[in-house]
Amino acid sequence: MAFNPVVAAIDVGYGYTKYAVRGEGPPSDDSFPSFAPTATGSAALGGATALSRLRVMQVEVNNKVYLVGHDSVLATDGRMERLRDAAYCMSDTYHALSLAALAYMRQPTIDVLVLGLPLSTLGTYRAHLEKKYIGRHQLPDSHTLGIDRAERIVDVRKVLVVPQPAGALMTAVKEAPDLQRTTNLVVDLGYFTMDFLCTNGMSPLPARSGAVEGGMSGFLDELHAAATKDYEQLCPGLLPGEFRMPHHQYERALQGDKVLRTSAGDVDLVKAIKGASSKLDQYLDMVAAKVGNTDDILHVILAGGGAELLEPRFKARFPRMRKLHTPKRPQFSIVQGYLAAGSSLAQSTKEATA
After folding, report:
1. CATH number (domain holding residue 64)
2. DSSP character for 217?
3. What letter would DSSP give residue 69?
4. Residue 170 domain-assigned?
5. How confident is the model at residue 155 (pLDDT cuts 50, 70, 90)?
6. What SS3 class is residue 140?
7. Dist CA 189 CA 331 (whole Å)
8. For the chain, where are the E strands, in sequence order?
9. CA dihedral in degrees (163, 179, 287, 255; nearest 10)?
């Protein structure tokens, strides 16, 4: 009987947690917001209340219960924002999000689990993640996800931790194999950092790679500042700092009609987006300073949820770099690359033990 290893991948971002799994059937992937509000009012989630229908699960970490899942934003108090912490992977929130992703996968055994870290923290926390996630994990057993065959325990047999941009490169290579023979640049605009990885084929060039702090969160801060000026036209006499709007509302507007809906009326964000794009230009200036000469870079891969927003700014900043690849689903390009790396490791392990 053929051995079909179960390979799973989790990309816990500051903005969204993405996961993918490949087992007996076709591979599947999904995502949910990286919000994990504490369930201080968890009694409201029971019984026949409307809240009991939220697509969240209760995840206990260090005697604290977190609400995690697709509707976790709706379980917040309206003031909560995502963490912006370089040591994010050490937090209870990160662990709660990871356990939720494992629960969504519905697998009793995972042969290889692939996780990722930003380039700026890979060396510091890689060993910690490998040790933390190998072995048996108790999964959430109280949720309203509509899962009929939810697993209670998952046994993770091997853990691989890779740099986040490498996942996007692995995905791109499947579509364009010649990337294995050229000098490439992968740019991942994440929520807290913008990572960039320069490679010779599949080999990293560390001196030309790095991370810029700020990411989409910095852009959204700028967008809010620019949008505030337009909002003030709806509310003359507004005091400084009085207008507040969480980042996820701007993200929703960017994914839709570029209109921010507020209690005082709609704010068209087109002008504000143009002004806030100067933050992206600052990031790219820092990339240029680190990468150095760009004439030998034949391919550029843009990844992460901010890839489509970054693409026009990249073209303007680097007009000679014309082989620009933006995956069809850039927010999943990294986690799909993790899955490919995990499958390769599982196959090599199988061959070594055969």
Report:
1. 3.30.420.40
2. H
3. S
4. no
5. very high
6. coil
7. 10
8. 7-12, 16-22, 28-33, 57-61, 64-68, 109-110, 112-117, 135-138, 153-156, 159-163, 183-189, 193-200, 203-204, 210-213, 259-262, 265-268, 299-303, 324-325
9. -80
pLDDT of residue 272 exceeding 90:
yes
Residues counted in the chain? 354
Q: Are strands 153-156 and 109-110 parallel, antiparallel or unpaired?
A: parallel
User: How many C-beta atoms surround the C-beta of residue 14 within 10 A?
Assistant: 21
Among 159, 151, 167, 164, CA closest to 112: 159
Alpha-carbon distance values, 352 to 72, 285, 287 (Å): 43, 46, 40
List the domain range (segments joined by +) for residue 81: 7-164+333-353
Q: What is the pTM of this model?
A: 0.85
Q: What does the block give as tokens for 123?
A: 């060396």
Measured between alpha carbons, how far is 13 from 89 in angstroms, rounded to an integer?
10
Amino acid at 129: L
Q: Which two tokens stand for residue 213?
A: 């702090």
Asked if residue 29 belongs to a domain, the reply is yes
| Domain contains 230 | no
Work out the pLDDT band at 146, boundaries 50, 70, 90: very low
| Cβ-based neighbour number of residue 255 at 10 Å | 10
